[in-house]
């Protein structure tokens, strides 16, 4: 495979570190520039912007393909929800699917919120992961109509507290939205949400479920896999 870092003077380790810091943590481009400067790496925030735009989607695709291939997700229950996002004063919708373990499965940005859009979103997710055993949603009628078209309307569940998994998964994106002073276009929102979801999945170690020694081992393994060449 062609080396994606071939014509870059900066080492791949530094590029990966900069991209990881910007996507994984609620940091601005200038924050990443300052943190790298403390480590003796002199770059501008525009360089960080270029690296994340160039390599972020590539890293996310590699992570997503590997996790799908290795089955790091569950079809036992999916939680579906929409995030309201304003872009240049206009309301948009970010549809997100999360499994019961917090793995972000799919993210899809639209201008409307109806049966047609919900059906397209569900078909996209099912094509990649297969159909779930349970689908937890809010009471939006579009979900009911879309699931009926797919023949799995009986698997739908709604309830006041049942969809907390999806609601909590929105928090990292909301924090980033504030840091970035909101998104400028549907394309930038779609791109960032997909990349951030993949990186979040990779480093989501659910530390509350493990002993400290196991968590440290899993964290080391996750960092080692991140530093590997793009698969």
What does this structure look like?
The protein has 231 residues and is of the alpha/beta class. The chain has two domains: 12-71 and 205-227, no CATH class; 78-184, Nucleotidyltransferase, domain 5 (2-Layer Sandwich). Helices cover 53% and strands 14% of the residues. The protein has nine helices and five strands; from the N terminus they run H-H-H-E-E-E-H-E-H-E-H-H-H-H. It has a five-stranded mixed β-sheet with strand order 3-2-1-4-5, sandwiched between helices. Strand 4 (135-137), helix 5 and strand 5 (156-158) form a beta-alpha-beta unit. Helix 1 (12-24) crosses helix 3, helix 3 packs across helix 8 (186-203) and helix 4 packs across helix 5. The longest helix is centred in the N-terminal third of the chain and has 26 residues, at 45-70. It starts with 11 loop residues before the first helix and ends with a helix.
Task: Draw up the topology in text.
Elements: H1 12-24, H2 29-38, H3 45-70, E1 78-87, E2 90-99, E3 104-110, H4 115-129, E4 135-137, H5 141-150, E5 156-158, H6 164-169, H7 171-179, H8 186-203, H9 212-227
Parallel strand pairs: 1-4, 4-5
Antiparallel strand pairs: 1-2, 2-3
Feature tags:
231 residues; Nucleotidyltransferase, domain 5; alpha/beta; five-stranded mixed sheet; 53% helix
Overall pLDDT confidence: 91
Strand order of the largest sheet: 3-2-1-4-5
The domain tally reads 2
Radius of gyration: 19 Å
Uncertain spans, ≥5 residues at pLDDT below 50?
A: none
Number of strands: 5
Kindly report the CATH topology of the largest domain.
Nucleotidyltransferase, domain 5
CATH architecture of the largest domain: 2-Layer Sandwich
From the N-terminal CA to the C-terminal CA, the straight-line distance is 9 Å
Strand content: 5-15%
Give the name of the CATH superfamily of the largest domain. Answer: Ribonuclease H-like superfamily/Ribonuclease H
What is the global morphology?
globular
N to C succession of SSEs:
HHHEEEHEHEHHHH
Helix content: 40-55%
| SS class | alpha/beta
